[in-house]
Amino acid sequence: MSESKQSLISVANAQRIVLDHVQLVAVESTDLMQALGLTLAEEISCDIDMPPFDKAMMDGFALRSADATAPGATLRVIDHVAAGSSADVPVEAGAAVRINTGAPVPSGADAVIRIEDTQWSDDGGSIALKVAASAGKNICDRADYLAAGTVVLSKGMRLGPSQIAVAAAAGASQVSVYKRPVFAVLATGNELVDIDQIPTGAQIRNSNTPMLAALLSDDGVDVVSLGIAPDDVAGLTKCIQYGLECDGLCISGGVSMGAYDFVPEVLTKCGVEVHFHKMAAKPGKPTLFGTTEKGTCVFGLPGNPISAMVGYWLLVRPAIAAMQGRTGEVPKMIEARLIGNQKQAGDRASYWPASIEADEGGRLTASALSWRGSGDPFGMGSANGWIVRPTGSPAATDGDVVQVIILERI
Ligand code: AMP
Ligand code: MG
To answer: What's the 285 CA to ligand 2 centre distance in angstroms?
Structure first.
């Protein structure tokens, strides 16, 4: 690795480098019902006119508007069409057909009058209109939404519930999507024990594997947990080689400058080209990114949980999106009023766990959560975002406008 790849690079540059190196995963065809969270590898067109027929928008009577140019017209009721059926006879002058919402408007009729604007005769054979009719009233014309062949979803769109609804209406029961990326997660450190253990002596629990697995699963990735690797070259090499078989590998710990931080050395030995190994983020400075010849993306995240989380949100998440053809999905910063205080930012952008809420006036506020540093995961328990202080930001106090990244729904 050249000297420049070890120099501190801005978060924006780090994101650009990651996105420049990401490769698309393979494409497969899947049932729409299994496609939630996946990304379209094709555009979807609607196979029919929508609606496919002139459709009643109200429960009422279909009639000829020329028969009811003023209130008071009386019309014979000749038929009843419910949704899912069609009228047997056309609507002729002086006639009306009872119709339900969603049913096809019978031929001859050009208006639907709401049932509450009519009065039945005692024998039920005719109606008197309380209102005048006009052509097109309460009718949605065939192809009013769109004509057959119209593109309704583009390649590269993530299929959330709304897009699933659109694809379903367009008749796309099978869709071509990018496969779920597969990511391996590896925790490193002689101090780590599994979460079902009570740490003794110098041990701590491995909370990063569950955290990273949860982040990845939430982003639609299939996760392979490689457990805990010791801080030695042989043990690390074995685990890393295995992880390099996947589309991505997230390693936590072992990327700093300590005597036991063997990850960069082992990665290089395993054929990973490291593209950068220091990012101007606080926490998160020792973050590393590399790729193999076959395109596996390797993220070396610092061991401290918050540092690893920052690296995940800033780099891993956008990479996962890009692997599925969604480029430019770097976290967006928006403005909120600060509750609490923030120190000035130095030569690194700082990320502070925050609770971001809308106040009564609908404006966003960001409360800096109590946090004892990058090793303290507990502030994250009530966080739904970060307060971001770009490089060189002055100190900020209560009420100041600050930038935030929202991580979850608020
Ligand atoms: P490192 O980046 O390897 O120097 O790790 C820095 C610190 O992060 C360690 O001293 C641990 O306190 C903490 N740490 C490392 N790995 C984990 C992990 N998997 N889960 C929780 N904390 C960790
Ligand atoms: Mg370590």
So the answer is: 14
Q: How many angstroms is it from 355 CA to the middle of ligand 2?
A: 29
Q: Is 252 in the pocket of ligand 1 (CB under 6 A)?
A: yes
User: Do residues 244 and 201 both lie within one domain?
Assistant: yes
Q: Please indicate whether residue 187, judged by its CB atom, sits closer than 6 Å to ligand 1.
A: yes
Which CATH number characterizes residue 83's domain? 2.170.190.11
Q: Which domain CATH number covers 259?
A: 3.40.980.10
Residue 376 scores a pLDDT above 90: no
pTM of the model: 0.91
User: Which whole number is the average pLDDT over 209-225?
Assistant: 97
pLDDT greater than 60 at residue 152: yes
Instruction: For 245-363, list the strands marked E by DSSP.
Output: 248-252, 273-276, 281-282, 288-291, 297-301, 334-339, 349-358
Is the C-beta atom of 377 inside 6 A of ligand 1? no
Total domain count, the chain: 4
Q: Distance of alpha carbon 27 from its chain centroid, rounded?
A: 19
Q: How many other CB atoms are there within 10 angstroms of residue 157's CB atom? A: 17
Structure confidence at residue 409 (pLDDT): 56
Residue of minimum CA distance from atom 14 in ligand 1: 303
What pLDDT, on the 0 to 100 scale, is given for residue 1? 54
